[in-house]
Write a structure and sequence with these properties.
4-stranded antiparallel beta sheet, single chain, 6-stranded antiparallel beta sheet, 97 residues, mainly beta, globular
């Protein structure tokens, strides 16, 4: 699930949410907003038994992302705004602010 919250100054907070029963182990959000850094944004367990991580982007901007599990598995989010083919022959998720 992806939740978008409009902020002041033409910014949007994007919260990425995984269910508590996911089987990926530790998961990280990676994308063009963090130079595809595999450890910059780790999903954190919340009191409502979900895992989430948030980033703030410019409203109206478009960003590609995926989730990366600790075992090296790439995961796409079914709630992405769209998908685009990448240079590895697979698909990245797209989110807009």
């Amino acid at each position: 699930m992806i939740k978008k919250t409009k902020l002041k100054n033409h910014k949007t907070k994007i919260t990425f949410i995984l269910p508590g029963e996911h089987t990926y182990g530790r998961v990280f959000l990676v994308g063009d907003f963090n130079s595809w850094n595999g450890s910059a944004h780790r999903f954190i367990k919340r009191s409502n038994n979900t895992y989430s991580v948030s980033v703030v982007i410019d409203s109206g901007s478009r960003h590609v992302f995926r989730y990366l599990s600790e075992s090296g598995e790439w995961i796409n989010d079914e709630a992405a705004d769209e998908y685009c083919k990448n240079e590895h022959g697979t698909y990245n998720c797209v989110v807009t602010g």
